[in-house]
Amino acid sequence: MQVLILNSGSSSIKFQLFSMPNETIICSGLIERIGFDDAIFKFKTANKTIALETSILNHKIGLNLLAEQLLDKKTGVIKSANDISIVGHRVVHGGKHFSDTTEITTRVKEKIKALSSLAPLHNPANLQGIEVAEDIFPNAKQVAVFDTAFHQSIPEHAYRYAIPNTFANTHKIRLYGFHGTSHKYVSEKAIEYLGKKDSKIITIHLGNGCSMTAIKNGKSIDHSLGFSPVSGLVMGTRSGDIDPAIIFYLAKKQNLSLNEINNLLQKESGMLGLTGFSDLRDIENEAKNGNINCQLALQINTYRIKKYIGSYTAILNGLDAIVFTAGIGENSELMRKMICEDLDFLGIQLDDEKNKLKSKSINPINNDNSKVKILVIPTNEELEIAKQAVGLFKN
After folding, report:
1. CA 230 – CA 267 distance, rounded (Å)
2. CA–CA gap between residue 362 and residue 188 (Å, rounded)
3. Which of 133, 144, 142, 127 is nearest to 180 (CA)?
4. Per residue in 20-65, pLDDT tens?
5. Phi-psi category of residue 323: left, alpha or beta, with phi > 0 → left and psi -120 to 50 → alpha
6. Burial environment of residue 173 by CB neighbours within 10 A (0 to 12, 13 to 18, 19 or more)
7. Can you say whether the dihedral through the CA atoms of 52, 55, 59, 62 is positive or negative?
8. For the chain, how far is it from start to end, CA to CA, in angstroms?
9. Cα 252 to the chain's mean position, in Å?
10. Which of 14, 17, 45, 284 could form a disulfide with 7 if both were Cys (CB 3.0 to 4.6 A apart)?
11. Pairing of strands 24-32, 12-19
């Protein structure tokens, strides 16, 4: 069985084609910098890697480019669209409607669309991926795996907001949490590495979107993203935590509409708002060359993460490991170093030399005196989605 997995982020699409159930990767790749003229398309098989820079102004263009490559007579990996049995889609916001892996129907698509206002950078891209895949692979089963599902275990005292009860009871306003597929995957790998199920772990997913999860005995008990994926950490274009009064100030004093404020917080803030750049690689290079705004932005970003490490260690009542994952978490030794500095009191001590090493598997980067394991674990949301998608049809 061949299973294609599409993982659409706010400015990227990761994809993998698996032969299941043996989990063999037939091809994989990445489309990044979507929305720019210098977007990058990478397509890798066991024998060949294709990389090109081209204009990919939206997710639909990127997905059509991927489809053309999959079916290419010379360098493609499938002869017909009918070779694909299942297309699994990462969908960010499932709201109150979806807590499990779900086969996609017209009703499911309507619900995903209705939730787009809560995840405007993601759900529309996820829905585009579904619609394009339905056109290209009409005989494949389309399956959605929701980011919010892993966080269903968060207790009510953690997911409720201190607003009148009617908003929670009637309108289901609460913390939902996101990046659940990634946090679930790396936390299971960490538990296996630690060799203990009664574990206390903080997973730190750092990409263009960022989030942290407190995980006790394999269950999510708190998470930095909330009702929508805009709260918590400083992200590529999203603000993370701000004083809600700022929204009223912008509306009253600056005469900004609610749509303008939403766009400001979702697409013009975060590292982009602080530096003019949304890609951390650009920001690190600028900071190295003396750009004061970029240097400050890195401090603001890592300071926020430190605060969450402290608060999550408190609610876990201890800590066995912290896990870095996703594009920035796996690749930025500078971010990891800045985050782990001056956390000796919590038993977190980084080994600078180990931190420089690259690994495709679990990479411990703590020193010998560290009471807490510091692990870099490459996420594989695509494999997790594939396993869940195939599992949906086992019975």
Report:
1. 10
2. 12
3. 144
4. 989 999 999 999 888 889 999 999 998 889 999 999 988 889 888 9
5. beta
6. middle
7. negative
8. 16
9. 34
10. 14
11. antiparallel
Q: Which residue has the tokens 């207790």?
A: 155
Question: What's the CA gap between 274 and 291, in Å, rounded?
Answer: 12
Instruction: Tell me which amino acid residue 206 is.
Output: L
What DSSP letter does each residue of 17-72 carry, written as one string?
EEETTTTEEEEEEEEESTTEEEEEEEEE-SS-EEEEEEEE-SHHHHHHHHHHHHT-
- Whether residue 381 contacts residue 90, with contact meaning beta carbons closer than 8 Å, is answered with yes
Q: Can you give the pTM of this predicted structure?
A: 0.85
Sheet with 321-325: list strands edge to edge.
219-223, 210-216, 200-206, 321-325, 373-376, 363-364
Catalytic positions: 147
Structure confidence by residue, pLDDT tens digits, 240-273: 999 999 999 999 999 999 999 999 999 999 999 9
Phi, psi (deg, nearest 5) at residue 275:
-125, -20
**Are residues 2 and 391 in contact, defined by beta-carbon separation less than 8 angstroms?**
no
